[in-house]
Design a protein that fits this description.
globular
């Protein structure tokens, strides 16, 4: 279990590393958009090859995959709406800035993505005695631009640096505990349940990308976002091929 916990912490630690980078040297608007675009491409590849494809190949039934994807999408959407309403109540019905809203959406996506992903990492350690390299690298690599993008937008929206770093530290800890929980709780779980967990993560990430990350990247960097998104996708796909 300790090994699973440590691998989970390592995989999620790039969120905090990205946050530290952005808090000390916030990227310029265009650079931020390009970072977000590259991260979006990495995440799209991770969804396609490390999450949805993996869920489908488990043989747990198509309904487990479909229901997991829609459950992840619904959970993110509900959470995103709840965040917006909370912000408006807190501000006296004043709409949050675009930067703040996008940053919180990316943070929510990282949490809903990170918990299932690291739980699966923990299960992998239990089943094979080692962590899957492609999955670990994909999680670590995709987390880095997420941490940079969300932190830059939150600080740009007026959040205190210490508060943002504290939130990311808590997210990393939760992801580490999720890996340990996956090690303990998913052993012997039906294949359909594990496929659902993978697909849930994929649905949450896809929804976050559509609502927050890709639109924000395009707003900052324009058409160059297309090339950087493809580059991120290809880099992550290449990592997938190296292990396969």
């Amino acid at each position: 279990m300790t090994q699973a916990l440590l691998w989970g912490l390592f995989a999620a630690s790039s969120l905090l590393i990205g946050a530290l980078i952005a808090s000390r040297r916030p990227p310029q608007r265009r650079a931020l958009g390009l970072i977000m675009a590259f991260g979006a491409g990495v995440l799209l590849s991770a969804v396609a090859y490390e999450l949805i494809d993996e869920a489908a190949s488990m043989g747990g039934g198509g309904m487990a995959v479909v229901s997991g994807v829609f459950a992840g999408a619904a959970t993110f959407t509900i959470g995103d709406v709840a965040i917006g309403r909370f912000q408006r109540r807190h501000r006296g019905n004043v709409m949050p800035t675009a930067e703040e809203g996008s940053g919180l959406s990316i943070l929510l996506g990282a949490l809903l993505d990170g918990i299932p992903e690291t739980a699966v990492l923990g299960l992998t350690v239990l089943q094979t005695g080692e962590v899957g390299v492609a999955m670990l690298v994909a999680v670590f690599l995709s987390n880095l631009p997420e941490g940079i993008a969300a932190t830059a937008t939150l600080i740009g929206g007026g959040w205190a640096r210490r508060s943002v770093l504290g939130i990311w530290a808590a997210v990393v800890l939760v992801c580490g505990l999720a890996a340990a929980a996956g090690y303990l709780l998913l052993d012997g779980a039906p294949v359909g349940v594990i496929a659902f967990v993978y697909a849930f993560s994929g649905g949450a990430v896809l929804t976050m990308l559509a609502i927050s990350m890709i639109p924000e990247a395009y707003e900052h960097a324009g058409r160059a976002v297309g090339v950087l998104t493809v580059l991120g996708f290809i880099v992550a796909y290449g990592i997938h091929l190296l292990e396969g």
